[in-house]
UniProtKB/TrEMBL annotation:
Provenance organism: Kosmotoga olearia (strain ATCC BAA-1733 / DSM 21960 / TBF 19.5.1)
GO molecular function: L-malate dehydrogenase (NAD+) activity
Superkingdom as given in the UniProt entry: Bacteria
PANTHER family (alphabetical): MALATE DEHYDROGENASE (PTHR11091:SF0), OXIDOREDUCTASE-RELATED (PTHR11091)
Similarity field: Belongs to the LDH2/MDH2 oxidoreductase family.
UniProt entry keywords in alphabetical sequence: Oxidoreductase
The name this protein goes by in its record: Malate dehydrogenase
EC class name: oxidoreductase
Length: 352
């Protein structure tokens, strides 16, 4: 089903305002969620709205919570989100990081006591729009079973990295450090589809294709969960994916003195983030750096294609092209999500 962007934006903002958010918080939540759907990242789009509504009702998210700077140097910040709205905290933090990068060439922030902030790439993209290199990381609920374990202690811990180019769009890498994010399991579950082998394991630590079973086990913390990049064991380098998950965990919860993934969502969200921005000018002429990067990008695109493949992409291209189609033709959302939004509208007495 396709819905106009403005309709989705206004509805999402109205829901968040109904739940106690001010206009600014409601608008940034709407923008981040709808941007995800516009780019084809339905796992992090308006389907998440039900979760936010429930978390505010359960007092996991405080709609009035405001981020507080608790430690600062000329180039770094430590921020306490005070259990507020994740998108608001993340936007505040990256804005502060950008200010420092513009003044000193580099800025970094670590954040504790936040909540789910949507697509990580949104915040890395904030920096690249200002001509900077942007980095955005977050830990999550405990969803990932590390190598040789059958217990989910770590998060899907995404990494987003944005690099400016001389083209219309930057390079934007936005990926979970697990084989798939939880949102993908939820999509498969909504559509009654089996997940591919190698995405997740059950409570015994063995591969399963049942997304509902994995989600249920994770919710009840019965064992099993998603696998790190590379999958099960060491044969396809699952231990390297485990290393990437751990890297994000240390930069987010480690530096912030915040909650590790296995201690999140125990009464409060307690999610942690890390943001960074670099000004290419501290390394030389920014325009020459862009030109040099384009040499690499064009070489990758023009490489000999595998049999049966028509095009080679660089990161972000598919999503930006999908966004342009969404602006022109409407935002595509699946049928279960569409009816869930209508149910939210009915329950909160908000026009759909």
């Amino acid at each position: 089903m396709k819905v106009k962007r403005e309709k989705l934006m206004n509805f999402t903002a109205d829901v968040m305002k109904k739940m106690g958010c001010d206009d600014e918080k409601a608008r940034v939540v709407a923008e981040v969620l709808v941007e995800a759907d516009m780019r084809g990242i339905s796992s992090h789009g308006v389907a998440r709205l039900k979760r936010y509504v429930n978390h505010i009702k359960e007092r996991i998210i405080d709609p009035n919570g405001e981020p507080e700077i608790i430690f600062e140097t000329p180039v770094t910040l430590a921020i306490d989100g005070n259990n507020g709205v994740g998108q608001h905290i993340a936007k505040f933090s990256m804005e502060k990081v950008i200010e420092k990068a513009k003044k000193y060439g580099i800025g970094m922030a670590t954040v504790r006591n936040s909540n789910h902030y949507g697509i990580a790439g949104y915040y890395a993209e904030m920096a690249v729009k200002m001509g900077l290199v942007g980095i955005s990381l977050t830990n999550t609920a405990p969803l990932v079973v590390h190598t040789f374990s059958r217990e989910a202690l770590l998060g899907t811990n995404p990494i987003a990295f944005a690099f400016p180019t001389s083209e219309k769009y930057p390079i934007l890498i936005d990926m979970a450090t697990s084989v798939a994010p939880r949102g993908k399991l939820e999509v498969y579950s909504r559509l009654n589809k089996k997940i591919p082998k190698g995405w997740a394991v059950d409570e015994t630590g063995h591969t399963t294709t049942d997304p509902e079973k994995v989600l249920s086990n994770l919710k009840q913390r019965k064992g099993g969960g998603l696998l790190p990049l590379g999958g099960e064991g060491e044969e396809f380098s699952g231990h390297k994916g485990y290393g990437l998950v751990l890297l994000v965990e240390l930069l987010t919860s480690g530096l912030s003195l915040g909650s590790f993934s296995y201690d999140t969502y125990k009464g409060k969200g307690k999610i942690t983030h890390f943001f960074a921005a670099l000004d290419p000018a501290i390394f030389g002429n920014p325009e020459k750096i862009k030109e040099h990067a384009m040499e690499l990008i064009n070489s990758l695109r023009s490489a000999k294609k595998a049999d049966g493949k028509e095009r080679i992409y660089v990161h972000g291209e598919k999503e930006y092209e999908k966004r342009e189609k969404s602006l022109e033709c409407g935002v595509e959302i699946d049928e279960p999500t569409y009816y869930e939004l209508r149910k939210i509208a009915e329950n909160l007495d908000i026009p759909w």
